[in-house]
Structures
1.
Amino acid sequence: MEQDQTEIIKSEKYKWNLKDLYASIEDWRNSKNNLEKRIDSILEFKDKLGNAADNLCQCLNLYSLLEIEYSKLFSYANQLSDQDTRESLPLAMCQEIDQIGVKLNVAASFIDPEIITIDSAVIGGYLKENENLKDYIHYIDNVRRLKPNTRNTVEEKIVSQAGLMKETAADIYSIFKNSDMLRPMLKLVDGRSVLLDDSAFTLYRSDSNREFRKSVFTEYYTAYKKYERTFGAQLYGQLKKNVFEKNVRNYKSCLESALNANNIPCEVYKNLINCVHDNLSVLHRYLRLRKKILGLAEMHYYDLYAPLVKKADKTYTIDEARNLVVKALAPLGSDYLETINQAFDNRWIDVYAGTGKTPGGYSTDSYDVHPYILMNYKGKYEDVSTLAHELGHAMHSHYSSKNQSFFNAQYPIFLAEVASINNEALLAEEAARESDNPEERLAILVHQLETCRTTLFRQTQFAEFELRIHELAEEGKPLTGQDLSELYLDILKVYYGHDKGIVMIDDLDGIEWASIPHLYYDFYVFQYATSYCAAADISEKIINGEEGMREKYIREFLSSGGSNYAIPTLQRLGIDMTAAAPYDSAFKKMNSLMDETEKILAENLGQSV
Ligand SMILES: [Zn+2]
């Protein structure tokens, strides 16, 4: 049996076929050299975009072609390297292609500023005159809407000089946290000691031994607490950078400045926080349920990751996973399934872990080839769920690339996670339906509930902290590490029902902010929560067979890629991210998962809850 599995893992069938991108490394190199030679040809259009509709159209055509080839070259080098990160040739290829990327960016850097300066009436005339420009309407609009936030040429030069300092706070944070910060040694239950860095923390915080996981939290956060002042100065540096950008670009707030990059209204962000606040009782119900299952008289922050169910023994071979995923995604229709089957049959997926292979999972697309998926498949339910998730991204890319021009196919991050989380939800529905083993079903339910806690509530909690600290910085209030910890602690206490006695938040927990690198991504994490809710709403409608939903999902959502902004794209599915409805749908779903959990516990495992 083991022998069989080794043979399967080694089999070509489960490795992606990079030959669909380039037949050989030599082929890649020839294409790279060709691209390099062609880059400067785009400069022929410099200072000419405002002269004629054809100039603008030809320039954007050429720019698309260069970008398509570049992204293909980039994917090949990076995917080759990800197969075995120890190999030096692919690493060198990645560096070569990065340099080409910089060259291409520099050469094309005149395009957007020139598009901004063309008179509106002239642009309108261009669009009527040259109908091939229709593929670029959204691109042009996306560039031109930033006009009110763009300074004159001289000022822009100064702003771009200041840009050299932009990454300083984030760089110092990352180097300090990942290299220089002294980490404690953690004593394991078996007497061995390990360095308690971030990955060890993630591994051990979910230990079933309570005393042990308490010491994991205490040791880990005590180490961060020692550097509270330094971490505070780093994060405050980032906030000052954002206040500077808001001011020079005429935004009312740092939030508006960050969200405007993707044309997301601030209302969407604030609506998320309000809806979550109005429904903290749903999180509290879940936390009480956890407390009961864990049999704790008092639950602390260090108990949050404790396993609720025995580690499920059930494993799925990759063929079983494929069958389950195909069954689960059947509500999306035969065309969708046909492509999913192609992904397996035509080797779009690199399935198993191997020495040197990059960890985790991702999906990547080369516009005129097909998407690829990297997995480190181990056969657990979580792995099947990751497979469904990555297939969601891959199918989004597949439909976008098939139906849109290159620029219009690039969907924004706000939409990306919707397609993947939707697939996870459909999978969970099918897996729970198929299983007649209560423990297995319980494991699936708990997996879904935990995803909801960590994606919807926890990310919103980060988003709220981010908003508050930016507002204080905008008011000119200095923020020390200690101030940041106090603010963070206040938010934690509200979310986790400290005053209601649901989860006891200890003072030391307030330092958690210092361990979160996402705070340097500037108003990014809220999108995990919004995507989760949009996906919850879509999957419920698809599962309930709402008329026309499947067709709309494929045609108006997956196939539209990035041809419109995120909020109106979701609106075409009847999902309004400025309203309470998508959130209500997620909370309703979470409540029904808890009803089901309680029912299984009461009926089968003799636990009354
Ligand atoms: Zn994803």
2.
Amino acid sequence: MYAVAGRVKDEDIALVRDRSSIVDVVSDTVTLRSAGGGNMKGLCPFHDEKTPSFNVSPARGVYFCHGCGQGGDAIKFLMDAEHLSFIESVERLASKSGIQLRYETDGPGVSTPRPQTGQRQRLIAAHAAATEFYRDQLGSPGARKAREFLAERGFGRDAAEKYGCGFAPDSWDALAKHLRLKGFTAEELTAAGLCKPARSGSLIDRFRRRLLWPIRDVTGDVIGFGARKLFDDDDGPKYLNTPETPIYKKSHVLYGLDHAKREIAKRGRAVIVEGYTDVMACHEAGEPTAVATCGTAFGVDHIQVLRRLLMDSDSFTGEIIYTFDGDAAGQKAALRAFEEDQRFVGRTFIAVSPDNMDPCELRLAKGDLAVRDMIAGREPLVDFALRQTLAKFDLDTVEGRVEAMRKAAPLVAKIKDREKRPEYARKLAGDLGMDLDPVQRAVNNAVRSSSDQPQQRAAQPADSPQRMVEREALKLALQEPVLAGPMFDALGSEMYADPVLQAVREAVSEAGGASAATGGAVWIEKVRDSCADLGGQVLVSELAVEPLYVDGAADPRYVQVTLARLQGAALTTRIRDLKSKVQRVNPVTHKDQYLALAGELFSLEQQARALRDQAAGGL
Ligand SMILES: [Zn+2]
């Protein structure tokens, strides 16, 4: 549908590489902290982790993740993190650093039209032009209702300006015509979600007679719009959003994030509100960390986006605060978050506004301070969930209390921070008006029955655990080299205790390494031919077909966990050897040697702990 992107001159690409700061580019999506030695680190955007293994070297202009093996320069980062093509990444970086790109032509004398830039760039440009168009319309006579809507909610001209609010005029194709004149094609406007083809075949605008909020990605580019109905005879839904497009993915988008991201990182919290006016109200009231989802529930992908901003020194310590106006839908959403989001329960809070008002209404009725107070009065999600559960039962009867205990005990059992469980069991007993003993027992039972399941799932054929992990790592290299490549290759044959498996590991290197392989029979054959050990050759064929111990397809997470276990097993052996060595050295007569060994032991044990954390999360 689109012309092939033009080829940018090599020297311009080099210039883009040179001028782009890897730290700036990465910082748009990942909060970075100093890692010493001039390097920075943060939570990897490419795999799920709680402790940062994503490193950025400003001096070398590159990033590398020790967890999943992703690495590269600023161009590569944009390609992977924002799903851009090579050319789109180059164009994005060039425009940020003010570099005018030159494109290769077919040769002297051949007149080629100016090559089209990447699709993303075009869709962003269309949105920028549309934002300007809609904003101008907000001042027109036809937009009186839109201005009133904002004014009634406490937003004057300044706020409208600041958030880029606009108005879609009463016309079928005012925007389409305007953007066509600016050189955008019908295909581009359709792909952008700004327009759609009518039955007659002509191009019509998606939004009509509505108040619009531009929705920006984390870097500030407008990628879509949210549109509020204003007129009673508009029979569309109250809110209409841009549909899914190549640049607009509602599961990732958070309204207000471009304004809020620095404050979220700085203050260590993010406030989740429900609508565009709520975001505006919170920001205007002095809570600049508010964001809202756009036409979808707050989900796992949104959490990932926020977590990368909330990373604090070494782990995720920020708070995610949901606000609800106390209605049933909001409560349901909070309880669902509790179900899905176990890893962050301890970091999740609920702020319920008084009198069922949303932040925008609250600000109008009681002022800025009331909004900030509501957020400050947040309660832990666990408390909220318990309260909601107990509210469903009649605690005046024995049956009601017992039933409530049965429903509430699993919630307490789910609290990941196990030291907090006794405290909550006591609290639950108090709320129920029951003795601690039966409540504690119910909680313990719930803990036991929930921890039974993973053990059953982990049941695997008898084989030493270490050997199994070694085999699994090799299976990944043979069956999924594209996925496992860089991580696998980073771990040498010394990680393998079994000599035959060691020979297979060496054969993988001999065959050029898993990173360079694309998989398939040719790859397997190459490894087999490279294997010096006859038993190893047989084993290669076996490992190439033996199913992986993972439900469904292997993913980067599984690769990471498997290789972390492999490293962990090798470390355990080294630690055991080192410990016995330390014991044999006399700390008085051989002080220096003793200290050196003890230091090494300490650092190995730290590494082992980190690896155990990595390996624990996954399976
Ligand atoms: Zn990673």
